[in-house]
Structure formats: structure tokens, C-alpha cells
């Protein structure tokens, strides 16, 4: 009996052996460190992707045998769910791999920005240490605003308690039991923005959360606020953030995700210019370039998920998800109504 074709994309060499060991008995495997293309996935019944691969309607239409998309992430905004649902293509995710890893990374960014860690390190290397230029801010006694209280947001609240912070949060689906257990309070978004000394984003990318933080929201924030985003770049309107940073209303930002972050891999702007596509991409490139130059901004490359422990959980759950689907008992399925 012919094995079904399972195509992995965005999969590093270190992970490939684990996926082969766990799946080669039941599937004909192909592996690619590059992103998804219809040509590479030709004939696949199952594809497995990271967030950097866009699973569009056009791609799926070119894959007539496709029955399962196994996302190796919690988020699935890179998948056209409407098309998948209409064509009976199941979409599964890894819902709980990153609560510790991402929440810890959010605090890493929070502390690095508020204590001017990068500037301090560069000053030592350049032998130009000026303590008055390196004065930072404590977390203890401050108010942390959390937008999104899913697994990662709740873990951020746990960590904040260890730093003696007051936590205020907002979520369209509040969890009163968690608020009681972890000692935080819920409030509408404007109240969270007005109260927070530090703000950390843990909401999904949806049409409703697109540019959740724009010029109006930045104006509602406390002067001197620090903002951390380890969720999705589309939650923040980049030009509005740049304006708030330049005015000093936002004291600093730690950004692991950006609008158009896939363009960070371009060698230079000439690549984009040669493509003759100067719409949103050009705006994103310009925004990224400006943010890179601001001294009160720390940018990392969508790295919050990237710990040995989290990667192990991603591998284990992805393999289990694919086996469960193969056995007719799919798990961690994204519901069609979403």
C-alpha cells in the first residue's frame, strides 16, 4: 500500500531526524528548510508548516490531494481557514508549547529595554560608559498591563507576581477563576492602557485585533510606558508606534514580532524594489528600518518560541497530531467557525 505524502516546510535540519523517526513508518516524507511552495508540496496529502509559510487559497487550490495542514505553532493566521473549511482540509495546531518560553521571553525584553541592557553592553565594548545615560527602571511596584490572558498571558501574570508587580488585564473572553488564582484584575482596554507602566501583548492576530494599538491607543497610555510584543506584529500600527517613541510618550519597546517581519530576511531594500511591489511591503520595510535605528527599541527575529524545551514540545505534539488524524481521531483542530 502506498504511503501518503507528508511534506514539511520551514523545518530545520536538527528537527528533521525527529520527524523522520516519528512518522516515516506511515508516511512518505519530504523535508524543506525553505517556506511552502505549491511545487514542493505537489501530491501531498499532509503539509506541516511554521508561521513563516503562507498557506493561501491559491496554494491549497494547487494541492488537490491536501487533507491536513499541521501547523507547528499555536497561531494559525497564516492559513486561509475559510478555504480550508470549504474544501474539507483539517487544520491542527500546537496549542500549549510556549506558555513558559514566550512569557519568559517577554520579561527578557521588558527588562532589557527598561534597564537599557543593549546600550550598557555596547558602552562597555566601546569603553564609553556614562552611568547617567544608562539609568533604567525597576519592575517592582509597577503596573503590568496584559492584553490577552490565554496560556501565555496567564503565565506572564504569574511571573509578574514574582517581580512584585500589580497586574491589570483585558481579554474578550475573561477568565475570572484565573484572575482570582493569580491575583490580577480585568478592565476594559482603555483602563489597562491608562494604568500600565509596562504593557505586554499576548493576543492572536484576527481582523478584530489588527492594529489594536494605534495612535488613539498610544495617546491613552501613561507617559513613559514600555511596550513588549511577542504575539503578532499586526497588533501594532507601526507608524503610530514610531511617532509615540519619537515623542517620548512611549519610553521603549521590545519587539519580537513586526508588521512585515518576513522582510527582515531580505538582504536589502533593492530586493523589494526589483519586485516592483511597493505597497504595504514598502511601508513595512521603511517602518522596520526606522525602528532598527531607534535607541529605545530592541528588535528580535520572532524568537520567543525558540527554546530547546519548547521545540521538543512542538515536535512531540506535531507528530501526535498527525498520527491522530491518520487514525481518524484528529486532535487540536481549529474549528471551522474560527
What does this structure look like?
The protein has 338 residues and is an alpha/beta fold. The protein folds into 2 domains: 5-97 and 309-326, Rossmann fold (3-Layer(aba) Sandwich), CATH 3.40.50.720; 99-299, NAD(P)-binding Rossmann-like Domain (Rossmann fold). It contains 13 helices and 12 strands. The strands form 2 sheets. The protein has a 7-stranded parallel beta sheet, with helices on both faces. α1 (13-23) links the parallel β1 (5-8) and β2. α1 (13-23) runs parallel beside α13 (308-326).
Give a nutshell description of this structure.
This protein is an alpha/beta fold. It is built from 13 helices and twelve strands. The chain has helices at 13-23, 57-61, 81-86, 99-114, 117-126, 151-162, 176-182, 189-195, 215-220, 238-247, 269-274, 280-293, 308-326, and strands spanning 5-8, 28-31, 46-49, 68-71, 90-92, 143-147, 166-170, 185-186, 198-201, 225-229, 250-255, 297-299.
CATH superfamily of the largest domain: NAD(P)-binding Rossmann-like Domain
> What's the CATH architecture of the largest domain?
3-Layer(aba) Sandwich
Number of helices: 13
Largest sheet: 7 strands, parallel
CATH fold node name of the largest domain? Rossmann fold
Over all CA atoms, what is the radius of gyration? Answer: 21 Å
- Number of separate domains: 2
SS strand fraction? 5-15%
Low-confidence stretches: 266-276
CATH class of the largest domain, anyone?
Alpha Beta
Q: Helical percent range?
A: 25-40%
Shape: globular
Mean pLDDT: 93
- Secondary-structure element sequence? EHEEHEHEHHEHEHEHEHEHEHHEH
Q: Give the N-terminus to C-terminus distance in angstroms.
A: 36 Å
The helix/strand class is: alpha/beta
